Amino acid sequence: MLILRFLARRILLSLPILLGITLLAFIISHLVPSDPIVANLGQRAMSDPTIVAAFRSEWGLDKPLPEQYLSYVGNLLQGNLGKSIKSRRPVIEDLKAFLPATIELALSSILLGILVGVTFGILSAVSRNSWLDHLVRIFSLIGVSVPVFWLALILLFVFYSRLGIVAGPGRLDPSMTAPPLVTGLITVDAILAGQWDVLKNALSHLILPSLVLGSYTTGLIARVTRSSMLDVLGLDYIRAARAKGLSQRAVVMKHALRNAMVPIVTVIGFSLANLLAGTVLTERIFAWQGIGSYAFLASTSLDFQAIMGVSLLIALVFIATNLVVDLLYFALDPRMRTS
Amino acid sequence: MATFSLSRFLRRNPLARLGVIILLAWIVLSAAAPIVSRFDPKKQNISSRLSAPSATWIFGSDQLGRDVATRVLYGGRISLPAGILVVVVAGLIGTTVGSLSGFLGGWFDEIVMRITEVFLAFPTIILSMTIAAALGPNLINAVIAMIVVWWPQYARLVRGQVLSVKNREFVEASYALGTPRLRVLVRTILPNCIAPVIVMATSDLGAAILVFSGLSFLGLGPDPSIPEWGRMAADGLQFFDQWWMAAFPGLAICTVALGFNFVGDGIRDALDPRTR
User: Of A89, A148, A292, B237, which one has the greatest count of Cβ atoms within 10 A?
Assistant: First the structure.
C-alpha cells in the first residue's frame, strides 16, 4: 500500500513538469527572430504570399500564440501530439518509427557501461592505490573527457575503414533485408525470425555506436562504483566479516556490493535517461535513424510539435527511470520499507 | 572547510598538477598563436589543399589549404573563453536566483523551483539545439543557448545550501546586530555556501567545452570561417581519409576537457575526503 501511495503521489507531481516542458518548448520555438516558415519553406515559395498564407493556416500559425498553445494542450490531453511540419506525419507515428533504433542503441550502451563500469569500479576499490586503481581512475576520467564525435570518427577510421573488422554507419548493410517487424529492435527481431546472418550483421553495426555512446556512461559508473565501494569497505561490519574468516570474494561480492548498490543503481538510472537524450551526436555520425536524429531535424527546422513530442517522450522516460530507481531502493534497502 | 592552500593542493595531487600544466600551456599557446605560427588561420591556399602532415604542415592542411595546426591553436581562443563564459555566467545567474529563492522562501521560492524543475527535466541537448536554431546559429547564440540550459542546476544547489545555512546561530547573530537582510545574505550566508558551487563549476568546465564543441559540430556554433574545434572536426568528417583534419582538433578538445577534469577531480578530492 505504501508503495502504491508513493507511486500515485509521484505521478501526480510529474504532471505540472510535463506541462511546463510543453510551454517552454513552445516559447522557445516561437522566439523572435525565428520563424518556422523560413525554416521550412524554400526561397521560391517564400516569395509567393499565397503559399505563405496557405502554410500559415495549414499549421495554425495565423492564430494568436496563446490560442496556438491552448489548442496544442487540448489535443495533448486527448493523446494527440500533433503533426510534424517537417515529415507531415503525426508526431506519434514518427516517434514510434524512430524510437526502437534508439532503444536498441541505448540498451546495448548501458549494458556495456554496467558490465565494464561496475567490474572495474569494484576492482579499483578493492585494490585501492594500486596501479590498477590509478589506471581505472585515469581511464574513467578520459571516458568523460573525450568528445563523442571524435571517438566515433577515430573508431570508424580504425576499425571500419582501415581494418574492416566491423560494419560502418547504418543499422544493416544495404544488401540485407530487415527481419519482419515485431519489436523494431533489429537484433531481437532477427532472433525471433531465426535469421542468424541478419543478427550477426546487426551486431556488427551496433558495436561501434554502442562503444561511443557508452564511453561517458562507463566512466561515470566506474567512478561511482569505486567511491561507493570504498565507503562501504571501510565500515565495521566488513571488518567483522573478514574477522570471521570469510573469503575476499564473499566479503566483496556478498557483503559489500549489496550495500554499495544504492548510488550505483541511481547513476545507472540517471545514465539510461541521459543516453536517450545524448544520442544526437552518435546517431548523426552513424546515420542511425533514431530519436536523436529526429530531435536534431526537429530542432533545426523549428518543428515545434515534433520538438515538444520528442522532449515529452524523453522527459517521460526520465521520470519513469527515476521511479524505477526509487522502487529499487525499496528492494535494496529494507530500512526504506519501514520508514 | 579547512583553508585552501593552492601550493599544498598542487603538491598533493599529481593529476591536478598535470591538469593545471595542460591548461596553462593551452592558454599561453593560443594567446601567443600569431607568434607561434607564421600561418594565417583564415588564409586559403587551394594549391596545397589536403596535404598530409609534414615538416611544413605539421598537422596537415584542410580542404581549403589552411594550416590545421594554426587553426587548432587559434581554436583555443574560441573554445576556452566560450566554456569559461558559459560556466561563469550560468553560475552567477544560478547563484543569484537560487540564493534569493532559498532566502526569501514563500511563493517566490515555489515559482522559481517549479521553473528550475522544468528546465532540469527538459532534455538538455534538445533544449540547447532548439535555442541555438531559434536564435540563429552563431558563436554568441551557442553560448546563450548553453547558459539557458546550464543555470538551473546551480540555482538548485545554492538554494539547498542557503536553506541549510540561513537558520544557523551566526546568521541570527548577524540579524541581532541590526544588519540589513540583503547584507546578511550577501556578507554572511553566501560565503558559507560557495564551496560546493566552486567544485561543481570546475568539473562543469570540461563538460561545457565538450557540449560547446558538440553544438558546433552539429553546425549550431560559429560560422565555418572561424577556426573552432568542433566545426573543424565536422569538416573532417567529409574528408574521411584525410584523418588529420578531424583528429587534431578533436585531440585539442580532449586535452582541454581532460585538463579541467583533472583539476576538478583534485578539488573534489581535497574538499570531500571520503573519495580519497
Answer: A292
> Measured between beta carbons, which residues in chain A are less than 8 angstroms from residue B141?
none
Nearest to B121 among A17, A227, A310 (CB): A17
Q: Strand pairing partners for B67? A: B61
Say whether A161 and B240 touch across the interface (CB within 8 A): yes
Rounded to 10 degrees, what is the CA torsion of A176, A178, A179, A181? 180
β-bridge partners, A83? A90
Kindly report, residue by residue over A208-263, the tens digit of the pLDDT: 999 999 988 898 899 889 988 888 888 888 888 888 888 888 888 888 888 888 88
Task: Give pLDDT tens digits for B200-218.
Answer: 898 889 889 999 999 999 8
Q: Which amino acid is at A163?
A: L
Q: Are B221 and B137 in contact (CB under 8 A)?
A: yes
- DSSP SS3 for B61: strand
Residue B61 β-bridge partners: B67
> Is the Cβ–Cβ distance between A73 and A22 less than 8 Å?
yes
- Report CB contact under 8 Å: B117, A20: yes
ipTM, 2 decimals? 0.82
Please enumerate in sequence order all residues whose Cβ is within 8 A of that of A239, keeping only pairs 6 or more positions apart, or say none.
Answer: none
| DSSP-H helix ranges across B193-243 | 194-217, 229-238
Q: What is the average pLDDT score of chain A?
A: 84
Q: Which is it for the CA torsion B240, B241, B246, B252, positive or negative?
A: positive
Of residues A154, A117, A114, A151, the one with CA closest to residue A137: A117
- Predicted TM-score (pTM) of the model is 0.86
Contacts of B272 (CB under 8 A, 6+ apart): B199
Answer yes or no: are the C-beta atoms of B216 and B227 closer than 8 Å. Answer: no
Cell of A200: 550477426
Q: How far apart are CA A70 and CA B202, in angstroms?
A: 42
Distance CA A40, CA A64 (A): 20
Q: B112, B68 in Cβ contact below 8 A?
A: no
Chain B residue numbers with beta carbons less than 8 Å from the beta carbon of A230 are 274-275
| Residue B96 in grid coordinates | 543569484
Is B87 in contact with B205 (CB distance < 8 Å)? yes
CA distance A103 to A301: 24
User: Domains of chain B by range and CATH?
Assistant: 23-32+67-271 (1.10.3720.10)
Task: Look up the CATH architecture of domain A91-338.
Answer: Orthogonal Bundle (1.10)
Q: Where are the alpha helices (DSSP H) in A127-159?
A: 131-143, 148-155
Query: For residues B180, B181, B182 and B184, what is the CA-based torsion angle, rounded to 10 degrees?
Result: 90
Closest Cα in chain A to B137: A300
Q: What is the C-alpha to C-alpha distance for residues A254 and A260, in angstroms, rounded to an integer?
A: 11
Contact A315 B123 (CB under 8 A): yes
Interface contact flag, A153 B246, Cβ < 8 Å:
yes
Sorted by where each begins, the domain ranges of chain A are 2-77, 91-338
Other residues' Cβ atoms within 10 Å of the Cβ of residue B224: 14
First to last CA, chain A: 13
CA-to-CA distance for B264 and B246, rounded, in angstroms? 27
d(CA B70, CA B62): 11
